[in-house]
Amino acid sequence: MRIAYLDGFSGISGDMFLGALVDAGVPFELFQETVAGLHLGIALEASRVDRNGISATKVDVIVNGQKDLPREEFWAQSEEQNSGHTAPRSADHAHDHGHTHADEHVPAHGRNLNTILQIIDSAPLSRRAKLTASEIFVALGAAEAKVHNVDVADIHFHEVGAADAIADIVCAAVGAEALQVEQILASPLNVGGGTVKCAHGAMPLPAPATLELLKGIPVYSGEVQKELVTPTGAAIVRVLATSFGPRPVMTTEKIGYGAGTRDFPQHANVLRITVGETWELDLPTINVSESVPQDKVSVLEANLDDLSPQIIGYLTDQLLAEGALDVFSTAVQMKKSRPGTLLTVLTKPQDEPKLRDVIFRESSTLGIRSHRERRHILARRHESVQTPWGEVRIKIGSMAGTDSHLAPEYEDCRRIAAEHHVPLKTVMQEVLRLYLDKKNG
């Protein structure tokens, strides 16, 4: 399986992720075309820099010809204006990677989340990139809303800062798609530490919205007591990474380093991405006949609590039409005792991205879990049986050369039952009888 692995030993921010992608081979021109298509006055600059002896790519976002404001200047301007539930100039800009917090009250003007989602939806992007970028921004907005105890609709991003964050997040979604990997994995994240001076005084690091986004993700604080993970970086890795832990057994095809703004002594302030193929160890199979072949499947799961049964039925049909191996739903009880549905999809690993897109497109879920499973499958074949009403296929499963499972094809039997006005169970029973008579005769 082709994967990308993120080494977050110096945290992650939006610009570091973009730099790592470019360094790993994603064309910088792709990002330039992407931000040009947003029509927000955004430009990007890429340069080679050195971070404590490591050569890395630095990507800067420029909005209306202006680079990031220094932290002190930014907060000085903020305190002169009215306070409101507004994320600052960006969800990332002016921190120790070169970005600002999204966790303080600053001028109550700018773009709200719905406006930003409309900008993303109108951009000339693939549907998959639009869904990914929107999911990242929703996660970021939800974290801000939780921290400030307001509705997510009341969260606004400063006009310039929203453009910064849109550039980082949309390019992150486009770049992740361009990697052409099946999964992105990540190490535990070094969040740094200490405090930072903001508009209303000192604030502990990680910033409140960052910490909210990192719930359930393994983090630690190293020697560098500065901000290493930003809210935008946390939102990106939360949505894109499917799991966190040690580097898996893998071959290496490409390596990229994305630089943060600061150059720490004795610490390379970079995000590293490695792209390659995973290798799985051959483990002994327990209590399963060696004659039964195996394969690997991807399992996609989503919890649905606000979708009508008719739409779930339509979604099931769409998934099967797109090549899902199986689709089934389970009644579950969700938080606040709400009844819901657990949607489970089995698919070939290579089909996982397109089926994930179908779920996002046709359902209301904001997140999909995925994992790999080993599947033991019986050898199978089809034979035909001639009945009084026409030909019917029968599926036969065998183990060690012995037929062990017989199943008349439902669609064939259903068609005959409807055309000849015969009970379906009668058709299926007759198919089995005729097959066994033929086999034993």
Low-pLDDT windows of residues: 69-108, 281-291
Give the rounded overall mean pLDDT.
84
- What is the helical fraction, as a range of percent? 25-40%
Distance between the termini: 48 Å
Number of helical segments with 4 or more residues: 12
Biggest sheet: strands, sense, closure? 5 strands, mixed
Name the beta content range.
25-35%
The helix-and-strand class reads alpha+beta
Give the CA-based shape. Answer: elongated
Strand order of the largest sheet: 12-7-1-14-13
What's the gyration radius in Å? Answer: 27 Å
Number of domains: 3
| Number of distinct beta strands | 21
Q: Could you please describe the fold and organization of this structure?
A:
The protein has 441 residues and is α+β, with helices and mostly antiparallel strands. It folds into three domains: 2-277, no CATH class; 294-376, Transcriptional regulatory protein pf0864 domain like (Alpha-Beta Plaits); 379-440, Ubiquitin-like (UB roll) (Roll), CATH 3.10.20.300. It is 34% helix and 29% strand. It is built from twelve helices and 21 strands. The strands form seven sheets. The chain has a five-stranded mixed sheet. It starts with a strand and ends with a helix.
